[in-house]
Amino acid sequence: MGKQARAIADLSLKDLMKDLNKAYCDEWLAFYLYWYMAQTVSGRNYEGIKGALEKLAKEEFEHATELADLITKLGDVPVANPMELEKGANAPYLIPPKNTADINRIIRIVAEAEAGAIEVYSKLAKKTFGKDTVTYQLVSHILSEEVDHEEMFENLLER
Ligand SMILES: [Fe+2]
Ligand SMILES: [Fe+2]
C-alpha cells in the first residue's frame, strides 16, 4: 500500500496491524490442526472426514497467505517466529483427540474453531466497514468461507 492508500485507511494502522496479525496466527493454528487431524484420522468411514479436513486446511492456508499479503502491503510484517503463533492468536490451540477414530470429537473441535473464527472476522468486518475498504473486502471474503466451514461440519454432526 502506498502513502496515499495508508492515509485514507481511516483507522489506527497500529491497531489494524495487531488485529490482522492475530488473525494470521489463528489461521496457522487452524491450518495445522486440520492438516494434522486429516493425516491422523482413523477408524470406520474416516475418508469423508479426512477429505473435509483437507479442504478446510487448504483454505485456512490460503487465508494465512492473504493476510500475510495484506499485512506486508500495509507496510508491516507477519509474525516471523512459529513459537509466537499461539501466543499471538485470538484463541489457544485446540488439541486433537488422542483417540484418532473419535470423529464426533474432531467435528466438535472444528465447529468450535470455526465459531471462533466467525466471531473474529465479524468484529473485523464491523470495525473496517466504511473505513478501510481493502481490509473490509478481505475479511468479508474470509468470513464467508468460515461460515461455509462451520456449516459443513455442523451438517456432518447431524448425520
Ligand atoms: Fe480461516
Ligand atoms: Fe475455517
CATH superfamily: Ferritin, core subunit, four-helix bundle
Shape: elongated
Mean pLDDT: 93
Q: What class do helices, strands and sheet pairing give?
A: mainly alpha
Order of helices and strands: HHHHHH
Structural domain tally: 1
Q: Report the helical percentage.
A: over 70%
Low-confidence stretches: none
Number of helices: 6
In the CATH hierarchy, the architecture is: Up-down Bundle
Largest sheet: none
Within the CATH hierarchy, at the fold level, what is the topology?
Ferritin
| Proportion of residues in β-strands | under 5%
Q: Briefly, what is this?
A:
By secondary structure, this protein is an all-alpha fold. It has helices at 3-8, 13-40, 46-73, 85-88, 103-128, 133-158.
Describe the 3D structure.
With 159 residues, this protein is an all-alpha fold. It has one domain (3-158): Ferritin (Up-down Bundle), CATH 1.20.1260. The chain contains six helices and no strands. It has helices at residues 3-8, 13-40, 46-73, 85-88, 103-128, 133-158. Helix 2 (13-40) packs antiparallel against helix 5 (103-128) and helix 5 (103-128) runs antiparallel to helix 6. The chain is elongated and about 55 Å long. The chain starts with a helix and ends with a helix. The relative contact order is 0.17. Bound molecules: fe (ii) ion (2 copies). The site of one fe (ii) ion has 7 residues, from helix 2, helix 3 and helix 6.
